[in-house]
Amino acid sequence: KIKALTYTLPSQYVGNANWLMNRAVQGKVAALVDANGRPFWNSYLDSGFGRPQMQIEGAPVFNSEFVGADGSVSATAATTPLIFGDLSNYIIVERTQISTIILRERFADTDQTGIILMARVGGGLWNYDAIRIGYIAS
Fold this sequence. Notes:
By secondary structure, this protein is mainly beta. It is built from 2 helices and 7 strands. It is elongated, with a radius of gyration of 22 Å. The mean pLDDT is 80.
């Protein structure tokens, strides 16, 4: 299923494609073997010295604790343990306006003024065709 997920991504996004998964899921993928008992994912170089960059089907792997772990309890019918695609299509947006709140009464006995500054930051995927998500039922 991991290889099938790799080849469902449209070709224009493959050049910048990355894997995003939880570290626990990465450990399960690293433990996979083929029919001949060879590891699906080689952890070390052939010489035994040094560790290559983690890759699956030539795309680098990154970890995020915000991606659901395999078998975790969720409100939906499935968790999202594997994300593959061009993650540069995720945009982080920051508002230019900063909100301020002045706290006068809290610091009145010490003749000080407290100030709270708040900035709004958000984000979202603007091109849903640039990623593929692998669902594993919980």
